[in-house]
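Input record (one chain):
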Amino acid sequence: MYVVSLNISLAGLMALKAVLLDFNGIVINDEAIHERLIEELLLEENLRPNPQDLEEYCLGRSDAACLSDLLARQGRVVSDIYLEKLLDRKAARYQEVLAGLDPLPLYPGLDDLIYQIRAAQLKLAIVSGARRSEIETVLSLVRWGEHVGLIISADDLAIGVSKPAPDGYLLAIDRLNQQFGDLALCPADCLAIEDSFAGIDAAKHAGVPVLGVAHTYPYQMIHRRATWVIDHLYELSLDWLNPYYSLASHKLS
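The corresponding structure, as predicted from the sequence alone:
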């Protein structure tokens, strides 16, 4: 079921030109893997993981921001160099875990969504707080990976910069405009697809309409924040959303 948020302004929307996908929680169901690896790192640092802290500081955010806040929460302040070492250790372990997964825990509906995006000739980018190596590994293992035209990862932003800051989305729009000189892409021309509060807020702060998917949080909680909301990714039909963009485009022309 689709719900249009009451605070949506059609006058601020234009033609849909690009879909910007989150990665963890939208493409791959790996939040439990990340949580376990973060817990391992904390234990190795002689710190006790707290599930509430993990949810508050990590869901939808980059590993650098997550680890920095978790360490600081327990009185541990580390240098950027040491933090990078921790992140490298986690990334290596993530790769090991992925190598042992068959099939990958991808969310149902991705193949159809990519088909819809290609059929509509929309640009496709991933905007994520994950590391580029993690994203590229997964994309190399799926049939539609080659159709992702742009990846904005934690490696493209300053260390510690993470959703809910809008930097990743704004950078994605800028780079898509660099790649395609006649695209003239603006935030209102995009659709972000997110599952976390931090991700939804990042898209909204960038001026990007956002579809929330209730993969991580209950439908009612996502509904309060996103422009639209669905329970499952496989429910998404771009044909359902297109009138909102085209209507606003006609109003502005």
